[in-house]
Write a structure and sequence with these properties.
The chain is mainly α. It contains five helices and two strands. Strands 1-2 form a two-stranded antiparallel sheet. It is elongated.
Length: about 170
């Protein structure tokens, strides 16, 4: 096992656990306010994919493999973008697809430029982190699996959010 990879994976795992805690709190509040969860069936697959991705990095990166510092810097930048998404969505950020009927869509932060910036960041993370440790196969496999899962999730999310896109008022 590569010590640097293990340290980075531990950091990412702790970051994800903190995000899940935050997301659960937001999910509970949104559901109490009349929010509706869409596409619940995909969620266990999403959790399994992210868990397996981190484990694959741990299990496949040999101890003697060097680290690409430029790619670790790119990964760090992606963490900043991830935080920007989280802060921009505020109380609407969850790891599940929750929509609150009639609520305006967030149009601030990266949502001014992209419809799904969080998924762009996640797709980049899934490729970049293993590549930083020369784990090309892990990057390719999990990028392909993530693309399939995100295609399914985004189609459900877009369908669920369509009525809210018609709401004339948006959150600045």
């Amino acid at each position: 096992m590569n010590g640097v990879a293990a340290g980075v994976v531990a950091f990412v795992a702790l970051e994800r656990l903190a995000e899940v805690w935050h997301a659960r709190r937001n999910t509970r509040v949104l559901l109490e306010e009349g929010g509706i969860e869409v596409g619940r069936g995909h969620y266990p697959f999403m959790v399994a994919l992210h868990t397996a991705w981190l484990l694959a990095i741990l299990l496949t990166v040999p101890s003697e493999v060097g680290v690409s510092v430029p790619l670790l810097i790119v990964f760090a930048i992606l963490q900043g973008l991830r935080l920007w998404v989280l802060v921009s969505l505020g109380r609407y950020w969850t790891t599940r697809v929750i929509t609150v009927p009639g609520a305006p869509l967030v149009q601030r932060g990266p949502y001014r430029f992209l419809r799904h910036p969080n998924y762009v960041v996640v797709a980049a993370e899934i490729a970049v982190l293993p590549l930083a440790f020369r784990a090309w196969a892990v990057a390719a496999l999990f990028s392909a699996l993530n693309a399939g899962l995100l295609t399914w999730r985004i189609s459900r999310e877009d369908r669920a959010l369509a009525p809210r896109r018609r709401v004339s008022q948006t959150i600045p």
